[in-house]
Write a structure and sequence with these properties.
The complex is a heterodimer of chains A (114) and B (113).
Chain A: E1 4-7, E2 10-14, E3 19-25, E4 33-38, E5 45-50, E6 56-59, E7 62-67, E8 72-77, E9 86-92, E10 103-104, E11 108-113
Parallel strand pairs in A: 2-11
Antiparallel strand pairs in A: 1-3, 3-8, 4-5, 4-9, 6-7, 7-8, 9-10, 9-11
Chain B: E1 5-7, E2 10-13, E3 19-24, E4 31-37, E5 44-50, E6 53-57, E7 64-68, E8 74-78, E9 87-94, E10 103-104, E11 108-112
Parallel strand pairs in B: 2-11
Antiparallel strand pairs in B: 1-3, 3-8, 4-5, 4-9, 5-6, 7-8, 9-10, 9-11
The chains are: A mainly beta (114), B mainly beta (113).
């Protein structure tokens, strides 16, 4: 059972464009939603995270939009750069405050063309 | 770079053997979580250790076991290795409360032949 569904599986964006990755979840008990970036041969690195008491969070070029009623959240990467080319994972946790127990989406491979 | 370190970085084992993977947590973090990441997939939660006790487990068989030591470092042990155990094994360190984020190590690539 896939509790966090991520789309698209892959994404190609021109340099300077906006990359958008979407995730949908099923369990309304989830209360922590991080996004991780992973480069080949490396572990995932936390990009940005949101809790359901806010609908949007922005850090630099990265924004999470959160829609609690639709049980969806998305990552927007503004002014995408070739260095952003990586695999992105959304995740969710239902153990309030315990950010180590995560359920991950399947991942999105982003390629930013120069 | 996070302060989470894993060893070894790569490992090749034969089916049926046993393997031990190690993880040192980031300073100030007393919780270690282990994940299995198959090629092209998202990480899957194996289990978490807090205060040297297992604190939650994912859908993995008992041949996956772990330990946590007083210095918060941790081991993942896998017995009776199967070909499908080939994956990147990740550990993440965090604190169980206080809204601190989880940081991952670089992983151990296990190949079972």
């Amino acid at each position: 059972q896939q509790q966090v569904k991520q789309s698209p599986q892959s994404l190609i964006v021109q340099k300077g464009g906006i990359s958008i990755i979407n995730c949908a979840y099923e369990n309304t008990a989830f209360d922590y939603f991080p996004w991780y970036q992973q480069f080949p041969g490396k572990g995932p690195a936390l990009l940005i995270a949101i809790r359901p008491d806010v609908s949007e969070k922005k850090e630099g070029r990265f924004t999470i939009s959160f829609n609690k009623s639709a049980k969806q959240f998305s990552l927007h990467i503004m002014d995408s750069q070739p260095g952003d080319s990586a695999t992105y994972f959304c995740a969710a946790s239902r153990d309030s405050g315990n950010t180590g127990k995560l359920i991950f989406g399947q991942g999105t491979t982003l390629q930013v063309k120069p | 770079e996070t302060g989470v370190t894993q060893s070894p970085t790569h490992l090749i084992k034969t089916r049926g053997q046993q393997v031990t993977l190690r993880c040192s947590s980031q300073s100030g973090h007393n919780t270690v979580s282990w994940y299995q990441q198959a090629l092209g997939q998202g990480p899957q939660f194996i289990f978490q250790y807090y205060r040297e006790e297992e604190n939650g487990r994912g859908n993995f068989p008992p041949r996956f076991s772990g330990l946590q030591f007083p210095n918060y470092s941790s081991e993942l042990n896998v017995n009776a290795l199967e070909l499908d155990d080939s994956a990147l094994y990740l550990c993440a360190s965090s604190r169980p409360s206080g809204n601190t984020e989880a940081f991952f190590g670089q992983g151990t690539r296990l190949t079972v032949v």
